[in-house]
Amino acid sequence: MRTEVVVFDIDDTLYLERDYVASGFAAVEAELGIPGFASVAWDGFLRGRRGRIFDDALAELGVRADIGRMVWTYRNHQPHIAILPDALKALNDLDALGITTAFLTDGPVVSQAAKVRALGLSAFASSIVLTDALGPGCGKPSPQGFLRIAKETGASSLAYVADNPAKDFAGPGRLGWTTVRVRREGGLHYALTGDDDIDVTTPRLSNLTALLAGIPATTTATITNL
C-alpha cells in the first residue's frame, strides 16, 4: 500500500528553529527599543540558556523592561523564516506524485500560526493541526492530533516526518504510521539519540520520496480507548 498522506512537523523539520529564535530576539529589541538585546540574547541562546534568557540578557545589559511584553512580542511577531531547500523539494516531489501533505506541530497557537503563514504552508496543506488549539494534554506525544489528521484526510496509510525523538514519534508510532526522523545539523534536538518508533533517520529531506518508497506502508491502527 502506498503512503497516502505525509504529515510534517514544522520546527527543525521544514526550517531551523534557531532562525525563528533570532527573528524573535530582533523583534523584541525593535519593539521595546533595547539596543544590543538581540545580540546578547542570541549569545546566551548559543551558550544553552533557555528559560530565563530575557532576564539574563537584560541583566547583562544593565537595563529593565517588561518581561511580559517581551514574551508577548516574541510570540506574536511575524517571523523572518523560510523553508529549507531540501524540505521544499520534498513538498514539491510529493505534490508531483499526488501524495497529500499535512502539518502537525506543538507550541503556542499564535506563534505556530505565524510560522505557518511565514513559510507559506497553506499552499501545500490538506490539513494543519496546531495541537495547542486542541486543548490540554493534546500535544505530542499524545496521538490526538494525529487522529484528527487521519479523520480529516480520510486516509488509512500515513507517514509523519519530524525531528525530536523524545516526543514526536510515540503518537504516530502507536497508530501504526510510518515515521521518518530528519536529524539536521543545527537542529535543537540534533544530539538526542534513540530510535523508538522511528522507521528511518535522514540528515535531509531531499530524498524523502525514495525513503518512503523503501518502507512498507502500513494501515493506520484504530484506537478507541484514548
UniProtKB/TrEMBL annotation:
Keyword Cell cycle listed: no
Keywords annotated in UniProt: Hydrolase, Magnesium, Metal-binding
InterPro entries: HAD-like_hydrolase, HAD-like_sf, HAD-SF_hydro_IA, HAD_sf
One Pfam family matching this protein: Hydrolase
UniProt entry tagged with the keyword Magnesium: yes
One annotated GO biological process: small molecule metabolic process
Cofactors named for this entry: Mg(2+)
GO molecular function: metal ion binding; phosphatase activity
Protein name, per record: Haloacid dehalogenase
